[in-house]
Write a structure and sequence with these properties.
By secondary structure, the chain is mainly α. The chain has one domain. Helix content is about 85%, strand content about 0%. It contains 9 helices and no strands. Helix 3 packs parallel to helix 6 and helix 4 runs antiparallel to helix 6. The radius of gyration is 22 Å and the shape is elongated. The mean pLDDT is about 85.
């Protein structure tokens, strides 16, 4: 019993210490964002690296999610004689929930692991230490541009995912199943509110961008400077980011649609 209490105490102490260290790193990262206005090209390069290279998987995944929503949504609505409302179902499911969440999970698996591995390898190869020796702050030169780029790229990728999902739902519902084309688009335009639905989805994606990008950079910066340490850091990035996105999604949904 005494041994178990010691283990629990050690776990609680380490957890609190890690949370405190992560909080200090987060606010330090926020403080290094302001000087970037003098060198915006650093951010633009990282937006291209993070966003453009993630576009393919986001586009394909959004299209296939739209296919599935088109099929399942039509047969669920058709039982109640509301098959013509398929466009509303597809659009609201995407812009409110699936778009931001799926984009964040895919972003964590594609861009998040890439950021963690890149920063971890720079640390293992002592590139970050070399910057410090040359009086260059690696947090400003390396970490902050990637942090801002991840926050900027996430909403754009989420909107692309939603657009491709709606196209996928249209192809299945209208072109394949035979839902009326006018009803599909007109009901979608009438029921989807720009501020309440699309705006809330954008807010979610921005919050997820903060969370996923910070976790990826923090894990890379704190990784052990060994191949095994970098591998474990990339694994932690996916696990922690995915759980954090789902937890934040619950909190934001409860706040937005209470």
């Amino acid at each position: 019993m005494e041994k178990m209490i010691k283990h629990l105490g050690r776990f609680a102490r380490e957890t609190i210490a890690n949370l405190g260290h992560a909080s200090r790193s987060f606010f330090g990262m926020i403080g290094n964002v302001a000087p970037l206005w003098r060198r915006p090209q650093l951010v633009f390069d990282q937006v291209h690296f993070i966003g453009n290279y993630s576009m393919m998987i986001i586009t394909i995944a959004g299209l296939f999610v739209g296919f599935v929503l088109g099929y399942l949504g039509f047969y669920a609505l058709n039982d109640y004689g509301a098959g013509e409302s398929l466009g509303v179902l597809v659009a609201l499911a995407l812009v409110r929930e699936l778009g931001p969440v799926m984009t964040a999970l895919l972003f964590a698996g594609r861009a998040g692991t890439s950021l963690t591995a890149e920063i971890g390898l720079m640390k293992a190869n002592e590139q970050l230490s070399a910057m410090e020796m040359m009086a260059v702050n690696p947090a400003q030169r390396v970490i902050a541009p990637r942090f801002v780029a991840g926050i900027l790229a996430m909403p754009v990728l989420s909107l692309v995912f939603c657009a491709m999902g709606i196209i996928g739902g249209y192809l299945v519902g209208v072109e394949l199943i035979g839902v009326d084309n006018g009803a599909f688009w007109s009901q979608m335009q009438a029921k989807v509110d720009v501020m309440k639905d699309i705006g809330n989805g954008v807010i979610k994606s921005i919050v997820f961008g903060f969370a996923v990008t910070f976790v990826a950079l923090y894990q890379g910066y704190e990784a052990m400077p060994t191949p095994e340490g970098v591998a474990r850091a990339t694994t932690r990035t996916v696990v922690i980011s995915s759980l954090l996105v789902l937890w934040l999604d619950f909190l934001l949904t409860a706040w937005m649609f209470q």
